[in-house]
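pipeline stage [seq->struct] | target=DNA-binding transcriptional regulator, LacI/PurR family | organism=Amycolatopsis tolypomycina | residues=365
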Amino acid sequence: MGLEKVLTKMTKFRDVADEPPGGSRGAVTITDVANAAGVSASTVSYVITGKRTISPATRRRVEETIRTLGYRRRSGSPAPRAGVLAVAVPLLGDRQLGLEMEFFSAAAGAARELGFDLLLVTDDEGTSGLHRVTSAGLADAVIVLDAGEDDPRVPVLLASGRPAVLVGAPGRQRGLASVALDFAPAGLACLHRLADLGHRSIAHLGPPVTRPGHRLRYLTGFAENVRAAAEERGVAVVSRPCAPSADDVARCLDELFAEDGPTALVVHDEAVLPLVMTALGQRGRQVPGDVSVVAVCSDTVAGQQRIRPTAVVVPAAELGALAVRRAVHQLDNGPVAEPDVVFPRLVEGESTAAVVREEVPLPRG
């Protein structure tokens, strides 16, 4: 049984669309939000509950109006603390198990130290599960993973009035606490390190552009900075999408090495990394003797490889603990401070070496 059905059976609460017109005296109502945003009251309700799909532009307008007017769902007397922090995770096929394990382990440890438990909220039907958790008072605060621009979960959090922390890529702030993961400097460090080793043809293996999202693996700025540094250093870089399957990895490598091929790979997906290392061995290419490899992954996945790769290590544990502390800080009446920014670091391993053969630079692409 899905979370939404379970919570429906467990709780009885009034939907935001059922809020009486006018609400309590002096309170901002759904009608006020609707009038200010130029939409119907039902549209505002759908934005908050996630019961229907609303266009990003309309959702953004409603969100900004909720924030500006300070609308909060009507509630009765303040409830005692539940001692629970909800962690909202999009239910995606993109599984980054090493990152997830590190994040949730650190978050659970920090929560226990502060007297809280964690409630995992997964919802593949939009924002309805998150709406139900906040409406029913099942959690004192919410941590939202993989938060990005125009995230449909933001209006739910703004309307709930509960403390919330967004964990995601750097972006504009909307009145909610946030912990940002900034990959841009790591992109520069990665390319400069390979260029220092003499590499002049590099392939960047990223996720397929058609995939819906990338939990705790924010791509903003990384690929752009790799290309910018490559141009500065006179290095040719090609980018290829590569899904975490043996067949797709084989296809990708066969295309790259059809002729001379690159002397270095940047593997920007921890689920793809072991497949790439295996496929290179099957093709008789030694790492790092024939080809250097830099991974973007968790410390856990880096440690599971046959040789420890040079890696841009994602600090998932730091993110988990920091997000919990920011949530509890707000529960203790602390203000919403400036966003915390966490930077992945490049850690030298055994998978990179200086170029030992003549090479023909790849065409730029």
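stage status: PASS
auto-comment: Confidence is low (pLDDT under 50) at residues 1-18, 20-25, 211-217. The longest strand covers residues 84-90.
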